[in-house]
Amino acid sequence: MRALRDRLTYANVTATLALFIALGGSSYAALKISGSEIKAHTITAKNIKRNSLGRRQIKESSLSAVPRAHNAARLAGFPAERFLVHCPQGTIPVSDVCVETQARPPAPYHSAALECEATDSKSAPGRRLPTHEELMTALNHQEIALAPGGELTSDVYPSGSTPGEVEVLYITNEVGNVALTTDNDAGAKAYRCVADPLN
Questions:
Q1: At 44, is the pLDDT very low, low, confident or very high (cuts 50, 70, 90)?
Q2: 106-129: b (≥16 Cβ within 10 Å) or e
Q3: Residues in Cβ contact with 82 at an 8 Å cutoff, skipping those fewer than 6 apart
Q4: Domain ranges of the chain
Q5: Is 91 helix (H, G, I), strand (E, B) or coil?
Q6: Which of 105, 147, 149, 110 is nearest to 128 (CA)?
Q7: Cβ-based neighbour number of residue 181 at 10 Å
Q8: Which of 119, 179, 182, 121 is nearest to 150 (CA)?
């Protein structure tokens, strides 16, 4: 104990006391600093705990685009407008298909189907005869009127009178009544083609 007392000098005691005051004072300051006491632009990203800032602390509208996402509003380099659906010339969109506005002259089912397929086939997949549902929906459109004598659909059924042949469903009037016709010159009816929308 005597050895310890010999080492206790005024300078040692003062230095030790100063150390405790300094440590206690900085701890007190760390607990009492508020946001208003922090100068702007003095806290860096390294000083912020990861994922501690969210929507409430950050005004998202003030953020600029991420450099690697500068092309996010485009698809394969093209603007979104490029991919809007549009219909080929001479057709209008009805439900999810493009329907020709003018009926074509009467033809047997097989000829009509081939004519539709050949239309635009060099630049697009080609067209087809409409289903009963597609034609019925189209007839409700003000730009489309049913051709006199009715129009063919793509719906076919085995012939009840001639084995191996088909009979074709056609719409007979604007109300949507239907009948069957044969797939030959005698059963020729007007028709119109439909196409899938293009990008």
A1: confident
A2: bbbbeebbeebeebbeeeeebbbb
A3: 75, 199
A4: 91-195
A5: strand
A6: 110
A7: 19
A8: 179
DSSP H stretches of helix in the chain: 2-7, 10-32, 109-118, 132-139
Domain 91-195 has CATH 3.90.1150: no
Kindly tell me the number of DSSP H helices and DSSP E strands found in the chain. 4, 10
List, edge to edge, every strand of the sheet that includes 151-158. 104-107, 189-191, 151-158, 166-171, 178-182
Question: Measured between alpha carbons, how far is 160 from 110 in angstroms, rounded to an integer?
Answer: 18
Helix (H) or strand (E) holding 199: none
pLDDT of residue 60: 72
User: Residue 184 in 3-state DSSP?
Assistant: coil
Single-letter amino acid, residue 151: E
- The alpha-carbon radius of gyration of the chain (Å, integer) is 41
The mean per-residue pLDDT over the stretch 62-86 comes to 63
Q: Which residues pair with 195 in a beta bridge?
A: 98
Residue indicated by tokens 């080609």 = 126
Tokens of 30: 């760390």
> Could you give the CA distance from residue 34 to residue 52 in angstroms, rounded to a whole number?
17
The per-residue pLDDT for range 148-190, each reduced to its tens digit, is 999 999 999 999 888 989 999 999 998 889 999 999 999 999 9
